[in-house]
Amino acid sequence: AVTGGSVVALSWPPIADGVRHLLSATSGGGLVAGGYDVSPKEWLQLIFEYRPLFSSGMARPLGELSGGLLAVPPVALWWGWRVWRLPNTRARLALPLIAMCALTAMALSQRRYVYYLSVMVALALAVAVVHISRRVSRGRWLAAVLVFLALAPIVRPLARQTRIGSAAGDDVFWTLEALGALDPTGVEPFGPTSVAAGEVPGVLAPWSLGHLVTLFTGRPAVADNFGYGFERQSWIYTAPPEADREVARKLDRWNCRYLITADLDSVLVTYAEAVGHGSVPLDRMLVNRVHRSGSRRPLEFLELVLVSRTGSRMADGSFLPRLKVFRIRVPENWAASRADEGALWAAPEDGVLR
Fold first, then answer.
1. Which of 175, 173, 330, 325 is nearest to 259 (CA)?
2. What's the CA gap between 123 and 131, in Å, rounded?
């Protein structure tokens, strides 16, 4: 009966689609009908919390959840045996057992569910400690040792958490604030009065900076943290030299006023594969040609207007800023008609830098 009920439950479309969603980081598409997530697979694979719990080994999960994580399987098995063999325990253990198994499966598929699993980990550790202290000779001492060993893996991660507030780097915030001050929009994007589409030219930045771009500059981001525009920014950043004019036309058609570049080598291969640029060498991709150039005008339509205060020292001794901000000035004879291919926004304002 239990097996039959499980099969029927897993066949029910909402549950079946949910299971497919949990596995979507590795299986890709096919989720449009279920509506759980229709974002590009390549984008999802870049998101840390979307990956399986043990995709980078055991150290990080133990550091996040403590060694109590190792108590979950034996406690679940023990509860399962009691539910199976001792009918009088079913009413008390069935629900926590189902919750423990379901949340463990969810977290194993996508690590973002560790927040829910943490409750089960604490419960499993508590059950193990109580059982040992009551049933084993010198159990209290053994239980104390077990608690110490379980908590030991989280000491270093906790120390690191105290510094996570500056993970994005103050310089990133400073650079975006400086851009907002350099060219204020003149409108309040967060006020009660809505901003008309096309009223404010946008910024093309790495998708992970999308919300920060809007927050600090008041301008729309071509790509943001919800996956919107992922293919657009990927196409631009990985474009080869022969596509430079098309890059300019796209930026003009999308009503972009600024392009922000950074060292994106760790993700460029994924970007390129998502938009069919997999054969373009890294050093020929637009973001590297522009970001690593020493010129204030690395391309005819890009003019350097702002750099971050921090960066790294290159092999030749030159300083490479962490972020560079370029003003987009597309020659009139390059600009595409914004009536073609569906413009995202209305025509941009004049090209004079305020």
1. 325
2. 12
**Full DSSP string of 269-338:** HHHHHHTT-TTS-GGGSHHHHHHT--SS-SBTTEEEEEE-S-EEE-TTS-EEES-EEEEE---TTTPPPT
Pairwise CA distance, residues 224 & 221, whole Å? 6
- Do the beta carbons of residue 17 and residue 103 sit within 8 Å? no
Hey, is 79 helix, strand or coil?
Answer: helix
Question: Which pLDDT tens digits describe the chain residue by residue (354 residues)?
Answer: 445 555 555 565 656 666 655 555 444 444 333 444 556 666 777 777 778 888 888 888 888 888 999 999 999 999 999 988 888 888 888 899 999 999 998 888 888 889 899 999 999 999 999 988 888 888 888 888 888 988 888 888 777 666 544 455 688 999 999 999 999 987 776 666 666 667 789 999 999 899 999 989 989 999 988 878 889 999 999 999 999 999 999 999 999 999 999 999 989 998 998 899 999 999 999 999 999 998 999 999 999 999 998 888 888 888 889 999 999 998 887 766 544 443 333 333 332 333
Q: Which two tokens stand for residue 89?
A: 């325990």
Q: Which of 129, 127, 120, 123 is nearest to 147 (CA)?
A: 129
With b for 16 or more beta-carbon neighbours within 10 A and e for fewer, the 151-178 pattern comes to eebbeeeeeeeeeeeeeeeebbeebbeb
What phi and psi, each to the nearest 5 degrees, are found at residue 90?
Answer: -65, -45
